[in-house]
């Protein structure tokens, strides 16, 4: 065959191939989940004739949810059919000229021969782990918090703070927006779990988009995804309850509305059933934006009169209260980049408390024992308002927060026992602040400007009446605080270099007058001012490549202080240089196993709020005198953290070890006088040594349709305290073990069980004083729902406490609830608490060289009838 003939045949072959290719049709698209937008893999995509089940072509989606089907020609009168177990199938009619077909699938329980197959309860995509709320919720669960406690890897502490695999979250979003600014208890305790579709945990979340590839984060964030029928309309819950022994009320109203451009969440609660609704307004925030940009300056509470805090038993059992809380939280998307948020919270909380305590003070060569009976009435009022303007884009970040926080609190306390008296305290607090954060990015460089300014006022009064005399303490303190800094970031992959320059300034004044106390103890008045400026520079270095992340921070500060005592007419000044380097390293051994280590050498700032020379009466028993001392506390700390997760198997575990050392040139000293304990400082070298170990593991088990978890903590402290100017070294340790289990045994039955064991020890060195106490608690809750209309919940609690070396006390508490659900969505609830009508609770604890045995009055048996409605 000639060369020319071969060329001709080749050209003809190419033309034929091009012709065949030109006739082919490629249909493609992407399949995602409707609720979360997550790409779905392994979805079966088929082409069928319209109205028939015959399959012409088929394929499956990739890991990214992408599919592609090649056809010789366009199939007229055909459809694309998408199907996957656990999701509702979807059909799309093919249109000539259209080649791209994207689709969203919705979850659906599929019945196959009496077997129910659902979508996975936990899914993972990259650094985001998604929990399907419906997979963890039981019939008795009302709030989102009830369900979060059952999700492996998520921990809710008693305070309400949320952690994921041992690490505190840095943001709480609802539909991708930060509506609550850290007060996420308003959402978790009030949003009905049936309105929530999924809970997304975003690991190592960088809240500032412009820094996402420049500065890594150590903390996760949570995003709440609502169900479609809970959006763009008002949804919520309402509850009204009344009861007796004594007369009881419990009323709640919650309403929220979320649209693409607005968010609104509103709450009103009032009760006298022992529930402290004000805890829901607590702010949990982490200043993780600019490292050491501190916003934590607070004036000391020199007057300390408050009810004792109960540690073991649920505080609702012993709280005799009248609580009111109202909050409104609103967000408006002014445009695609700018959000305006407002928060207004008002709380009114009256607390009555009756308790008895026996306190033992361990001295070098003796002990002092006091018996105290307290009857307390505390009235707290608080009004807080925030206005926040936020813009968060890939090029710049802007946030300006204006806050007003006004508190006015009064406490009346009657004391019997070793030191009978009555005391009345007024401790208001007024605070106003503005927080401005600006960041602008220019390619691999970014510029920041932060300015936080705060003004506080704390006028405080205390009146103590004894059998033969009276004492009165008046204190007026005020402070202005500012922290303004600027920084430049330079990113040279994989290294980021930052240099921060800033100034911190404080002007503080304090006046006080004490009457009724013998002037032989010292000066009775204070009139002072303290001013200081802290000029600081903080070079930072970050490294991130592959599986290794590291951050080095070396802040250096120059701080001139000026203290003026107007009574003595003296002025004192000092300049301090402080250096506090820190290093953090994290390594990803696998996508599941992460290990981090950190170390810090720090010189704490001068404790300028201890600068006063006159006496202050804190309460009927304690006097304090300040100390003019510019020496700082030298701190060293190291930590090791290990985190392991296997989300698709619902297994999460973490463990942490911390070692810290503190050294200072002053020591605390308490002197025992006739009616007082005088707390002062003396110029003596003092040191302390602390070990902390904690671990937590949780595993979701399909076998029991529930979760098991185990938490362990251990703390040991070694140090000393001066008593009557005699050094007393001591060591103490406390460890606890807490296993939990919850299980949905059947559709009509589920239960949860929690066990807690705690051991507390005290060893006074160079003496034979050794004391210890042990306690355990068990809580078992069982729920029975024989039909959809009826629900019965039984709860039992057992507490064991050593009240002395050879005595212990057991106490059993029980509750019962019966709920009837109407077809219309209303629920009628009957509950009885403390069925056995227990009336007292006792325990013993150690704090430093002090042991305290406490006895509390428990709320009596009570009955409550309530009506609940979800709309």
Count of helices? 3
Number of strands: 52
Helical amount among residues, as a percent range?
Answer: under 10%
What structural category characterises the helix and strand content? Answer: mainly beta
Ends: how far apart?
Answer: 85 Å
Average of per-residue pLDDT values: 89
Dominant shape: globular
Strand content: over 45%
Return Rg in Å.
Answer: 32 Å
Instruction: Please give the largest β-sheet.
Output: 35 strands, mixed
- Unreliable parts: 1-22, 111-118, 288-293
List its salient traits.
871 residues; mainly beta; 35-stranded mixed beta sheet; 5-stranded mixed beta sheet; disordered N terminus
Structure explained in plain terms:
The structure is a single chain. The protein has 871 residues and is mostly beta strands. Helices cover 3% and strands 62% of the residues. It contains 3 helices and 52 strands. The strands form 6 sheets. It has a 35-stranded mixed sheet that branches. The chain has a 5-stranded mixed sheet with strand order 10-11-16-17-15, with no helix packed on it. It has a 4-stranded antiparallel sheet with strand order 3-2-5-6, with no helix packed on it. It is globular and about 105 Å long.
Question: Could you outline the blueprint of secondary structure elements for this entry?
Answer:
Layout (H helix, E strand, L loop, with lengths): L2 H21 L1 E9 L10 E6 L7 E4 L5 E6 L6 E7 L2 E7 L9 E3 L4 E3 L2 E3 L4 E4 L2 E5 L11 H5 L5 E3 L5 E3 L2 E2 L2 E4 L10 H4 L7 E7 L18 E6 L8 E10 L3 E11 L3 E10 L48 E14 L4 E25 L4 E26 L3 E22 L3 E6 L2 E14 L2 E21 L4 E23 L2 E21 L9 E21 L2 E6 L2 E10 L4 E10 L2 E7 L4 E11 L11 E3 L4 E4 L8 E13 L4 E14 L2 E6 L4 E6 L3 E16 L4 E18 L2 E21 L2 E16 L5 E15 L5 E15 L2 E15 L4 E8 L6 E7 L3 E8 L4 E9 L1
Parallel strand pairs: 1-7, 15-17, 37-41, 40-43
Antiparallel strand pairs: 1-4, 2-3, 2-5, 5-6, 8-9, 10-11, 11-16, 12-13, 13-14, 16-17, 18-19, 18-52, 19-20, 20-21, 21-22, 22-23, 22-51, 23-24, 24-25, 24-26, 25-27, 26-27, 27-28, 28-29, 29-30, 30-31, 30-32, 31-34, 32-33, 34-35, 35-38, 36-37, 38-39, 39-42, 40-41, 42-43, 43-44, 44-45, 45-46, 46-47, ...
